Amino acid sequence: MTTPVSGTTTTPPATTPAATQDATTLGKNQLATSFNTFLTLLTTQLKNQDPLSPLDSNQFTQQLVQMTGVEQQLASNDLLKQLVANTGAGISQAVGVIGKNVTASSADAQLSGGKANWNYNLSRDATAVSIQVVDAKGNVVHAEAPSDNTAGDHAFTWNGKDMTGQQISDGGPYTLKVTAKDSTGTDVPNNVFLHGTVTGVEQDSTGKTLLTINGAKIPWSTVTSVTDATPATPVPTTPAPGA
Predict the structure, then answer these.
(1) What share of the chain is helix, strand, coil (3-state, %, to 5)?
(2) Which domain holds residue 197?
(3) pLDDT at 34
(4) How many domains does the chain have?
(5) What is the pLDDT of residues 53-72, one digit of tens each?
């Protein structure tokens, strides 16, 4: 029989800041500390220098130039890291999905050509479903209650008209919000997603890869599936003679 030992806890080893930082980040921190120390020493020496024998300003200038050079080198390292990341796993891979159908877990779509398209999934049958289209400022520009509330995937197309029936100019993004309830008033879980053909790939100023789907720019990270836009056409076979 084994007697359990109580009151014993295992404490994970402490992680030092240097262990969790890469070389560039650590270098920046050390440079900032050194620069602050240098300025403190410089100020102290200037206050206490001998007026008859002033300090040589060339030495301070050289040290400032050296620190500036190190700072520029660290900035270049950051840029190179970003370029490597973008080339290795970003836009170079995303370009391969141009012309393919993708599904993305995003509720944002663009009004293009007077319409915007979404898809949503109901986890089970619902008694009442409410759909709202919301603009970037949080205003509800369209609302309706669909008649098909069965479990599964549903497609929804907004004709671009607001609550008064006026046509809204192309643009966006617009967000689709779906609320579903069953006969007992309990919420029916649902999720909104986009499905369409990728027509373009780009990167924003932060290096994030964006796909253009139905006129909307969707982060590459939200893509959940990729399929061929047109299924392969089977090659007809010619029966062998005498078959």
Answers:
(1) 30, 35, 35
(2) 98-227
(3) 64
(4) 2
(5) 666 666 666 666 666 666 66
